[in-house]
Amino acid sequence: MGKIRGNRTASIAVAVGLAVLAAGCSSSTSSSTTTTTSASTTTTAASDSGSPAPGVTATSVTIGAISSRSGVLAGYFGQFVPGMTAYINTVNAEGGVNGRKIDLAYNLDDGGSPSQFTQLSHTLIDQDHVFAVATASPWFSPGYFASTATPTYGYNVTGNWSPYPNLFASGGSVQDYNSATSTYAYFAKATGSKSLAFISYGPAIASSYNACSTAAKDMAAAGYKVSFVDVGAQLAGSFTSDAQRLQQSGSDAIISCMQASDNVTLSRNIHQYGLTIKQLWLNGYDQALLDQYPSLMSGVYMTNAGNVPFAAASNPTLYPGMKAYMDAMKKYEPTYANSNVALSGWQAAALLVAGIKAAGKNPTQASVVSATNQITDFTAAGTQATTNWTMAHDKATYPTCSAWIQVKGTKFVSVFSTGKHVFVCVRADPKHPVPVPAPAGTPGA
After folding, report:
1. What CA–CA distance (Å, rounded) separates 5 from 388?
2. Residue-wise pLDDT tens digits, 54-87
3. Would you put residue 223 in left (φ > 0), alpha (ψ -120 to 50) or beta?
4. C-alpha to C-alpha distance for 133 and 125, rounded to whole angstroms
5. Secondary structure letter of residue 114 according to DSSP
């Protein structure tokens, strides 16, 4: 289930978020979330609220959320709303937006069911008359949100948020798998890797399959040696045969588009065969997971999907946005502080608030969508690489910026970057993956 943001490479965007379509990619098992606002079931007339928009009163903007809070996927997708909650609580504690509090009145659970997701979409829009919807579900379908022009925000693991102008996936709505090629090329150069391997699930889990199958083809076309490819791995399977074939192929680096628990199993099999091979995981940036498997994750690389790493909160001068995120999460939702899915919830709420603020005193759904689509340097309050929403519905943009991380001991440590800066940005040129200056506004730049 994953994302590189704004300039986020879809392959990483999807793969790290992908995933986990059957098991949850973190070791967090809680399926409950906290809603911090009171329920609002009526909408005041335009003459009272100053706005003809649904869900808007003189003092509040009512929104709703749909996520998989129960069922097999709850341990992953259930972490989204807590991140939203923390951001909304923070904004409301400071007086709200243009005099109105954000009211997350409806926090709905699709139970891991596509039909339930569809039903709840209609409930929020037709019955509850919310102003906007936020969602984190593998069952997301854009149809009704697009046809009603409802401002919609969320975590993109379905690849169908583009090109609708009112659908805003965290970090950019486009999933362009080819745009990750320069990022992988940079990894190969930075680690001195000469013989690359790729592993993903089969076509039934499209986000995983598309990410690695595209990357393998693109890297070979760019002149890199691709020595081993398995794009038919099984969820929760054994990877002993892959370890054998890695040994036979002479691969010195493997890029995995699988979920975190399978990455751990793959690493165990690699260790059992005594292989010295660099691993790049698109999914697994989770302190709880590292606490459980420090030896199997030792030395593993990750890209963090265009987000500022959580550890950057220790440098509030360069990364005040991450410091604010960590402080708010520890105050309101401490269980989920180190969750990238919770961070996506925070980022979704930040974009909603930015759009409402830019739309002015009397926001309508159309004016918020229009104002949001004029933002060129959105960083989700300093927690991600920049997203240019004038084009983020239609195409990937460059350079792509990654915050590279490596496991060292029991910690995730930033690597490849210069000094205290966490991002490395590269152009769309996999044959020459040379770092370039970060776009203006990039956190820490």
Report:
1. 10
2. 999 999 999 999 999 998 778 889 999 999 999 9
3. left
4. 8
5. H
- Name the β-bridge partners of 302: 281, 405
- List Cβ neighbours of 432 (8 Å cut-off, separation of 6 or more): none
Amino acid letter for position 306: G
3-state SS assignment for residue 357: helix
Cα 10 to its chain centre, rounded Å, is 10
Say how far apart CA 279 and CA 322 lie, in whole Å.
27
CATH code of domain 177-306: 3.40.50.2300
Residue 189 and residue 233: Cα distance in Å, rounded? 27
Count of other CB atoms within 10 angstroms of residue 272: 11
Mean pLDDT of the chain: 88
**Separation in Å, CA 13 to CA 7, 33, 71, 134, 174:** 10, 24, 23, 18, 9
Neighbours of 126 (CB within 10 A): 11
Going from N- to C-terminal start, the domains of the chain cover 10-176+339-372, 177-306
pTM of structure: 0.85
Strand 167-169's sheet: what is its strand order?
101-109, 60-67, 132-136, 152-154, 167-169
**What tokens appear for 245 in the block?**
């074939």
The span from the CA of 363 to the CA of 49, in Å, is 10
Rounded Cα distance between 324 and 327, Å, is 5
> How far apart are the C-alpha atoms of 373 and 273, rounded to whole Å?
51
Q: Do domains 10-176+339-372 and 177-306 have the same CATH topology?
A: yes
Domain 10-176+339-372 class, CATH top level: alpha beta
Please report how many Cα atoms fall inside a 13 Å half-sphere around the Cα of residue 139, on the Cβ side.
21
In this structure, are residues 162 and 175 in contact, taking their beta carbons and an 8 Å threshold? yes
Structure tokens at 368: 């918020």
